[in-house]
Design goal:
The chain is an alpha/beta fold. It folds into two domains: 181 residues, 3-Layer(aba) Sandwich (Rossmann fold); 114 residues, Rossmann fold, CATH 3.40.50.460. 42% of the residues lie in helices and 18% in strands. It contains eleven helices and eleven strands. The strands form two sheets. Strands 3-2-1-4-5-10-11 form a seven-stranded mixed β-sheet, with helices on both faces. Strands 7-8-6-9 form a four-stranded parallel β-sheet, sandwiched between helices. α2 packs across α3 and α6 packs parallel to α11. It is elongated and about 70 Å long. The relative contact order is 0.17. It binds 6-O-phosphono-beta-D-fructofuranose. 6-O-phosphono-beta-D-fructofuranose binds next to loops.
Length: 320
């Protein structure tokens, strides 16, 4: 094997740069030429790429986002787009591809693999909805962003006896919301995986204020409802001022945590190693402290990673 390529695809996340850096440097250390594809699968179709050197990945480790840039590429869902992408890879003499991204990107990765280009996928998405890995790249940094925001909101909320409804990303997965609820000491966690009872929440909130609590934080996963709607429903019933914060893309950026930098380094190195061993058509993941590999066929047909029921239970118990 002489030449491999790497791309970042779908929603960016912190730690992607650390991972690309690891792919480039581990690849070069093994005597490979590494090509960086720009703007994800779109760049593969449009032939936007450059040969990476060690200098190309200097000073990127500490930056959030992805210096290779990313895109959500609709063409990759068509046979024509897939054929073009794999023909371009073969035309460039690329013998292995590393794809860093979320569930849609891993499906694209598997499709390319089936078109004859050996692929390794790396789970990168703040949502932590990808199965067969305890955690995806970017999750830890996003959680740190969220709890920093909630810490700040508590200061202002308690100065005014207010309730804040905080909307958190995660698509159809409530992982970020429930874990941030525990880590930031918020009161409620509304997630798509669990039913919730707004009447019950409102009567609890009233009781809390009667007991002299000065603030309440209600975390809502975007997949469980719109913060604005939920705030409108509760504000008349609890008799306290309510404010809404949609954290939005703020959650996705920022310098990656040590955890995400290390995860990126390990994932990137494992991807190169397995490409060279021809152990491909797989996604790398982490289980406990070990790097594991799972067939992309299995990962992409498994659906959303379930939430450990211990998290909602803990969030409930600690918020009394
Ligand atoms: O999948 C990552 C994610 O940030 C989701 O949490 C969110 O629903 C979506 O991407 C937002 O997508 P976009 O960046 O295209 O607005």
């Amino acid at each position: 094997m002489k030449r491999i390529a790497v791309l970042t695809s779908g929603g960016d996340c912190s730690g992607m740069n650390a991972t690309v850096r690891a792919v480039v440097r581990a690849g070069m250390a093994s005597g490979l030429e590494v090509i960086g594809i720009q703007k994800g699968f779109q760049g593969l179709i449009d032939r936007h790429y450059e040969t990476m050197s060690t200098r190309s990945v200097s000073n990127v480790l500490q930056r959030g986002g992805t210096f290779l840039q990313s895109a959500r590429c609709k063409e990759m869902r068509t046979n024509e787009g897939l054929r073009l992408a794999s023909d371009n890879l073969k035309g460039l003499g690329i013998e292995g591809l590393v794809v860093i991204g979320g569930d849609g990107s891993l499906k694209g990765a598997y499709a390319i693999h089936q078109h004859g280009v050996p692929v390794i996928g790396i789970p990168g998405s703040i949502d932590n909805d990808i199965p067969y890995t305890d955690v995806s790249l970017g999750v830890d940094t996003a959680l740190n962003n969220i709890i920093r925001a909630v810490d700040n909101l508590k200061d202002t909320a308690s100065s005014h006896d207010r309730a804040f409804v905080v909307e958190v990303m995660g698509r159809n997965c409530g992982y970020l919301t429930v874990v941030a609820t525990i880590a930031a000491g918020a009161e409620y966690s509304l997630i798509p995986e669990e039913p919730y009872d707004l009447d019950q929440i409102c009567s609890d909130l009233r009781r809390r204020y009667q007991e002299g609590r000065t603030n309440s934080i209600i975390m809502v996963a975007e997949g469980a409802g719109k913060a604005e709607n939920i705030a409108n429903q509760i504000k008349d019933r609890i008799g306290f001022e309510t404010r809404v914060i949609v954290l939005g893309h703020y959650q996705r950026g920022g310098s990656p945590t040590v955890f995400d930098r290390l995860l990126g380094a390990r994932f990137g190195q494992a991807a190169v190693e397995n490409l060279m061993l021809n152990n491909t058509g797989k996604m790398v993941g982490i289980q406990g402290s070990s790097i594991i590999l799972t067939d992309l066929a299995t990962v992409t047909s498994a659906g959303i990673r379930p939430i450990n029921p211990m998290f909602p239970r803990l969030a409930n118990q600690l918020s009394v």
